């Protein structure tokens, strides 16, 4: 039986993942774990500060819910750390178009208008909090949403 051949590029994957991460490349597992726990703590403090929010693990990642409706999910299964949030109609295209290095259309929920926001790259925690609050207001009952404030949508900063 002939020896199995290594697919083209397979031998270089490990070397790439050991280097400093490049946009679009997964982080090494140890760095991902350290960064993830720090980011999760920061994200948790933003989400749990909102009225009646609970954290519940689903699909192996933390989700944040108001009255059992998910409004934010931390995702890290693909080697990148991000948060997925509900967005108002039209916001997804605007945010992704304005800053594609930060915002993206997430799988599974992107077709419903949700946005993904990378946390393992440049991040502005005020902007993260704004995206989370906006998602909360879209998901929470009106009386709870009113406690959080203004209905303005998050604004992406141009990466140019």
Notes on the protein architecture:
This protein is an alpha+beta fold and about 160 residues long. It has helices at about 10-20, 30-50, 90-100, 125-140, 140-150, and strands at about 55-60, 60-65, 70-75, 80-85, 105, 115-120. A six-stranded antiparallel β-sheet has the order 1-2-3-4-6-5. Helix 4 packs antiparallel against helix 5 (about 140-150). The longest helix is centred in the N-terminal third of the chain and has 20 residues, at about 30-50. The protein is globular and about 40 Å long. The protein starts with 9 loop residues before the first helix and ends in a 12-residue tail after the last helix.
Secondary structure class reads alpha+beta
Number of strands: 6
Global Rg: 18 Å
The total tally of domains equals 1
Set down the secondary structure blueprint.
Blueprint: H1 10-18, H2 29-48, E1 53-58, E2 61-66, E3 69-75, E4 82-85, H3 91-98, E5 103-104, E6 115-118, H4 125-139, H5 142-148
Antiparallel strand pairs: 1-2, 2-3, 3-4, 4-6, 5-6
Helix pairs in contact: 4-5
């Amino acid at each position: 039986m002939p020896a199995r051949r290594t697919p083209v590029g397979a031998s270089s994957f490990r070397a790439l993942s050991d280097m400093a991460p490049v946009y679009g490349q997964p982080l090494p597992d140890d760095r991902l774990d350290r960064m993830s726990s720090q980011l999760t703590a920061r994200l948790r403090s933003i989400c749990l500060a909102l009225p009646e929010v609970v954290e519940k693990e689903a699909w192996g990642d933390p989700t944040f819910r108001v009255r059992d409706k998910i409004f934010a999910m931390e995702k890290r299964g693909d080697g990148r750390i991000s948060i997925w949030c509900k967005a108002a109609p039209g916001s997804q295209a605007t945010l992704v178009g304005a800053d594609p290095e930060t915002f993206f259309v997430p799988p599974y929920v992107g077709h419903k208008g949700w946005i993904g926001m990378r946390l393992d790259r440049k991040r502005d925690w005020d902007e993260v909090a704004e995206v989370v609050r906006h998602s909360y207001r879209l998901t929470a009952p009106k009386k709870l949403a009113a406690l959080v404030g203004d209905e303005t949508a998050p604004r992406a900063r141009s990466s140019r």
